[in-house]
Design a protein that fits this description.
Blueprint: E1 11-14, H1 18-29, E2 32-38, E3 44-51, E4 55-60, E5 80-84, H2 88-97, E6 101-108, E7 113-119, E8 125-131, H3 137-150
Parallel strand pairs: 1-4, 5-8
Antiparallel strand pairs: 2-3, 3-4, 6-7, 7-8
């Protein structure tokens, strides 16, 4: 048993230009800016965006003097953010129209979602998906094993 309960989990992204990122996430995903903290030089030290009814995305500019840097332009950060949406095809098109790069087209997946993958202009990878069927963990494992054996 943990001594402290976890109450929430937030994605906190470092980007090369938080102002541009706020514009992108607003256009691509319908995010709404809650607030930002800007230092006198213009760097944004913290911004919060509301994404859907219960998700908060936190952003900051780079602060290399504190070890806070954005991923390389190739987007090879080892992390993917998954947005569960109403229609991944439409959201994917919207993200691309806003400046994202489509990494994998919308496809029905073995785990019961239709999903696509995009990279935002700041190097972060997003998996956009919507449910197409309810799949038990056992059935998911069966399908995954079959996929890996035939892949």
């Amino acid at each position: 048993m943990t001594p402290n309960a976890i109450h929430e989990l937030y994605a906190y992204l470092c980007v090369p230009d938080t102002h541009q990122a706020i514009n992108f996430y607003t256009q691509a995903f319908g995010a709404q800016e809650l607030y930002r903290l800007t230092e006198p030089s213009g760097r944004i030290g913290h911004a919060e965006l509301q994404m859907g009814p219960s998700a908060i995305l936190m952003l900051s500019d780079q602060f290399p003097e504190y070890g806070i840097t954005a991923p390389p332009p190739e987007g090879l950060s080892g992390m993917v953010i998954h947005l569960h949406v109403d229609d991944c095809d439409a959201m994917g098109r919207q993200a691309v129209a806003s400046g994202a790069t489509m990494l994998s087209e919308p496809t029905d997946q073995f785990y019961g979602e239709r999903s696509c993958k995009v990279r935002d202009p700041f190097g972060h990878t997003w998996l956009l998906g919507h449910s197409i069927e309810k799949v038990t963990p056992e059935e998911m494992q069966r399908r995954y094993t079959e996929l890996m054996n035939n892949g």
